[in-house]
Amino acid sequence: MSLWQSAIQTVKKNHLTGQKPQKKASQKPEFGNRGMSLEDDINDTNAYYLARELAVIHKKPTPVQIVRVDYPKRSNATIKEAYFKKPSTTDYNGVYKGKYLDFEAKETKNKTAFPLSNFHPHQIEHMKQVRNQDGVAFIITSFSVLGEVYLTMFDAFLPFWERMLSGGRKSITVDEIRQYSDQIPYGLNPRLDFLAIIDQKCF
Amino acid sequence: MSLWQSAIQTVKKNHLTGQKPQKKASQKPEFGNRGMSLEDDINDTNAYYLARELAVIHKKPTPVQIVRVDYPKRSNATIKEAYFKKPSTTDYNGVYKGKYLDFEAKETKNKTAFPLSNFHPHQIEHMKQVRNQDGVAFIITSFSVLGEVYLTMFDAFLPFWERMLSGGRKSITVDEIRQYSDQIPYGLNPRLDFLAIIDQKCF
């Protein structure tokens, strides 16, 4: 049984018996990122929100430049040559209680800083445009080795991007992220309840 | 010189000389859809909105299931086998004055009715979810032979979809579309100013 399945079993059992989960001496989160990618966690969270009619948020398809397609029939057309395109927007957007949400989610194995090379200049420009239209723009960063995930509102993130553009460091330190962001705790369902933070920030 | 270039020349000349454009005896729109697809017209309109900071609306990339990729280097990876996936959402979404907009745009050569087979059930379900989150969902339909483009709010469109589901006709007649929609007139720039209609409906 995997650790993940084990955690689910424990929760189910405690639920049935009415027991509170035992507190662990460890500082580690109870439901950590056990082999799931940040993208998986966010997609699962969005599926949870959608199923409960809490929000409608989707990941955009990967942008692809299609060059050659074989059409034996339209229904089973096969793309034979295509290339990845640089994204001109963020990966995720949607609607929550009437508000437009727009965000990019990235993870790093770095333990001390988040490299800004994870973001494209186009994406930053896009988030500026979104903010200027009164949309809610933010960034989710995961330090996968530390097991910590943060939500940084775009306005808090932008000064670090601009510091890099003016010749400063090309990353945001963990301490800076901690100071200017809210941590999204790992949960069982949803796994990363980022809307709880949006609730505090925007409603 | 194409008709389109000719129209631009005429407008430029009239602008320079201060002359009003001559009215034509013809009932045809002055700036018709002369060989441009609806998608081109909407993409151009969205680019116009974006450049003037009026709205941030993008077409989503075509969803593709990537099966095989050659990686000589990551930077020039070539997709060698991929398939088109059915879209689970609409093609366009974005933010306008803080509101979340979401729409699907389709055209037909049919002169008397708009076939509902142009829409996937998933897309209708998605627009329901958007509306339930207080997003603004609508449909843009183009009768390319008639040169007429309409914006139908999702709540006005849904009864026709449900009529089909209960065994009724599989299309919306032109007269029905005219009755329950607003026509988007062709313009020079932007080509299809659909936000003018959203302004009336939602602000």
TrEMBL record, chains A, B:
TM annotation in the entry: 136-161
Q: Where is this site: Transition state stabilizer?
A: 106
Extract the coiled-coil ranges from the record.
none
List, in alphabetical order, the Gene Ontology terms for molecular function in this entry. endonuclease activity
The chemistry this enzyme catalyses reads: Endonucleolytic cleavage at a junction such as a reciprocal single-stranded crossover between two homologous DNA duplexes (Holliday junction)
**Compartment(s) where it occurs, according to its Swiss-Prot or TrEMBL record:** Cytoplasm
Q: What is its EC number?
A: 3.1.21.10
Keywords (alphabetical) are:
Cytoplasm, DNA damage, DNA recombination, DNA repair, Endonuclease, Hydrolase, Magnesium, Membrane, Metal-binding, Nuclease, Transmembrane, Transmembrane helix
According to its UniProt record, this protein's enzyme class is hydrolase
CDD domains assigned to the protein according to its UniProt record, in alphabetical order: RecU-like (cd22354)
Required cofactor(s): Mg(2+)
User: Which note does the record give on the cofactor?
Assistant: Binds 1 Mg(2+) ion per subunit.
NCBIfam families associated with the record: PRK02234.1-2, PRK02234.1-5, recU
Name the family the entry cites: Belongs to the RecU family.
Q: What does this protein do?
A: Endonuclease that resolves Holliday junction intermediates in genetic recombination. Cleaves mobile four-strand junctions by introducing symmetrical nicks in paired strands. Promotes annealing of linear ssDNA with homologous dsDNA. Required for DNA repair, homologous recombination and chromosome segregation.
Name of protein: Holliday junction resolvase RecU
This protein's species is Listeria floridensis FSL S10-1187
